[in-house]
């Protein structure tokens, strides 16, 4: 993929992650195309840092990967005894006590958790392989636009592990328990047509049109008033955990805030 943010000075550029900001639109790019944007703890820390560095003006964040693949998953060096220099390998992690291991995984997850903040809308532009950690990173976003060559797969179970980078909750929410279980246990590829039909993706386009489709969607998101988008996102995010009557009450409370703000009577 060509880089739509290449003319902007990066706010962050480290460990395979680049963040650029153009007023209300931020772009987070995975930049290790030579390794198909394979992920490491350093990349996860950089992703978390990108979230902390977003200016308050940002309303939409686009996540993309350079090269032919969005992200082919974990850097396989993590599976070797030598591991990645300066990082714990799986054997090192396994030797920690329960509290230490839980803390390490929680830190890894921080790069995946901020994409659904109520004050932003996040859009993943996904081409080629999005496997394991790559699949979970795409799932971390609110919306996904995919190229027609996309290949989603959740391979952790096949390796004797479980998906632990926040991907299970959105996956079940999008495709349902039975389909999510089948995808995770078999580790099979999910291609563009099925991704759209199952709800994993909002839209599939030819590979050469991916950047343009994402720009159009981002522009449409930015066209709506910010406060109304924030309130609507919060309403929808909380809907699954509320009863019908509780959701009705939440709608009334949100609308009351919007009406008062529009009338200049807000606090």
Question: Any key phrases for this structure?
Answer:
globular, 267 residues, alpha/beta, 10 helices, single chain
Descriptive notes:
This protein is α/β, with parallel strands linked by helices. The chain is 42% helix and 15% strand. The strands form two sheets. The protein has a seven-stranded mixed β-sheet with strand order 1-2-3-4-5-7-9, with helices on both faces. It has a two-stranded parallel ribbon with strand order 6-8. Helix 1 links the parallel strand 3 and strand 4. Helix 1 packs across helix 3, helix 5 packs across helix 6 and helix 9 runs antiparallel to helix 10. The chain is globular, with a radius of gyration of 19 Å.
Compact description:
By secondary structure, the chain is of the alpha/beta class. The protein has ten helices and nine strands. It starts with 11 loop residues before the first strand and ends in a 5-residue tail after the last helix.
Specify the structural class: alpha/beta
What is the CA-CA span between the terminal residues?
46 Å
Secondary-structure element string: EEEHEHHEEHEEHHHEHHH
Number of helices in the DSSP assignment: 10
Give the overall shape.
globular
